[in-house]
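Let's do one together. I've listed all components of the complex below, 284 residues spread over three lines.
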Amino acid sequence: MPELPEVETAARTLAPHVTGRTIVGVERLDWARMVETHSVPLFRQLIAGRRMVRAHRRAKWVLLTLDAGWILAIHLRMSGNLTVHGPDAVARPHVHLIMTLDNGQRIFFDDERKFGRVRLLDAAGFAALDAAHGPEPLDEQFTPHTLARILSGRRTKIKPLLLDQRRIAGMGNIYASEALWLAQLHPLLPAALIDATGSTALHAAIQAVLQQAIAYEGSSLRNYRTSSGGRGQNQEHFLAYDRAGTPCQRCGTAIERIVVAQRSTFFCPLCQQLSGPTAHGKEL
DNA sequence: CATTACCTGCAA
DNA sequence: TTGCAGGTAATG
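Okay, and this is what the predicted structure of the assembly comes out as:
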């Protein structure tokens, strides 16, 4: 499920509930593979008694900064949700991690498909995680020039490149299609063939698509909920994703679905051409 | 580069 | 029953 906007929403809505609170213990942890860095007993022991200093996001990781130099990094993968509940809330069986706080509130990590992961990282571990990811697309340092350098010389198709977390952090299957639609770039266009006009348009499109989605608290298709339990609203504003057969909002042509790098990809065959006057591409 | 694996649930 | 789902890592 979650891409950058959903993870950002999760971190933001979690922050006021966790900042300054202490984790008194782990009430449930029934899926051992979830914890990638430690055995379950050691993990339970290490986070018990830790005070949480901050909740934020890097790439698609929710980061809970703890005292004693630890960072609890949580990846929601396809179906994960982080929610906050009171002492009496009943956790459904898909909740595989429950952390109890010193005020009686509990954090549920609900994860139907069990792909979600948590890591308890020290400073070096976090530095490695950070270094494994490309720039944050909403940072000031991410400029059209940054993007142009990422694209230059890469023979890979633009859509899979946008999904490569080592190149750009946080984009996923929904927002890659949305950004390419907005920038009028064909998903199969080789990255190196995108000219300055195209990379400038793509830069603006990536930021616009992500900022809009954050403003709507993410896209809720199946599983995703905000940390307070609500649905995001951005799915009401898709212009390409999941719109195969419906008219393009620019030109009226039916949106098409193709498979690129094993992922569903949606685009307008008229507005997003591999070459031609609207292609923003170098001559092929 | 493509395929498979990891998991579960839902719709066609 | 089959195919598909917002992600990623591990294989040929």
